[in-house]
Amino acid sequence: MMAFDIIYSDDRTLLLFRFDHRMLDARGAEALLNLIFNMKVSANSCYNKDFCFSHGGAAVDGKNKCFFNGGGAAVDGKNKCFFNGDGVAVDGKNKCPDLSLLPFPVQGSQLHSWQSRFVSGRIINRFLRAVYPQNGKAASLPVGRKKPELNFVVVPFNMEETRQFDANTLKKAGYLMGGVYLLACAATVFDFFFSQLGDSGDMVVPVNIDTRGMKMASSEIFFNRISFLMFSIKRNLGKEKMISYIKQQFLQQIKEKNPHHFKNATLLMRILPIKVTGFFMNQIMKEKPYSFSFSYIGEQAFHQEHILGHKVKRLFHMPVVPIEPGIGIYFTRFNGKLNLVVSAFDNKAGKTVIDFLARAVKKEVLSGHGI
């Protein structure tokens, strides 16, 4: 469900955090990392003067409530609770401290209100039928024959470029409309790209959005809290009209509470095995493929400037795009700077193509003009 990998490359160290999206979403993963590294746990250091850790196998004597011994042996230091190196509590005729002292997030299963879930499901079903082109064909990348492999292209923005993005957003789309502006930029590039492929269908784009507020409570970290907006984008509008067109749809979907209904309806999956749900979802997406997927995480949840004494330079999200549409454009911000990642299966778009798309999208974000 979760795994960490460390890669050493020249003068850099890369920390990879892999996780299952049934357990965490992107912003929740950031928040969990922030929680872990905010504990400031290092060799022979303490957290909140309650819990101490020893990586060298020796007891740490800091007059604290709980001791850990990395050597696998119980530590007898007249303390309340002992753990060995395997994480098993050792009976030392003492009580363990209250685990509520640790900020572990919790959430109920929400196995209730099924009538409202089904109502939301019907609303979303009607909406999806309405948003998809009436001829049943949206612009999409053709599928190759070979077994797909996932590729990524990472394109960072420096601070000056990020300021240019903010200025373009305010001028072209309005205050707090960064996601609308970025989607319009990506759609402008794909409009041109699909034209080169001879595909004239309208674009249909699913957009992931975070339903939490700017400040995230620890109880909101686990489980996937992503909802969706769905945009139908006409072709050959030009960038200016495309921004207005997308913004209008965005405001209308918020007014109709579509993100709430998407999220509410997805809770129906908790009464179906995940493999059964996945089978039905894949069948739907094969019958009605989308043009590309998109997301913009404007509020970061990881705020640590250093990890174990090392400065954090960049944080990227590298999501596994769904088989359909097979390509996704993902924007995040970290320490004020914008990042772009293109994720694609190579049976949809090869490395050369996604590299072109990534560079073209960045150029479009900074230019303020259409292609």
UniProtKB/TrEMBL annotation:
Keywords tagged on the record: Membrane, Transmembrane, Transmembrane helix
Residue stretches spanning the membrane: 173-194
Superkingdom field: Bacteria
Protein name, UniProt field: Condensation domain-containing protein
Species whose genome carries this gene: Desulfamplus magnetovallimortis
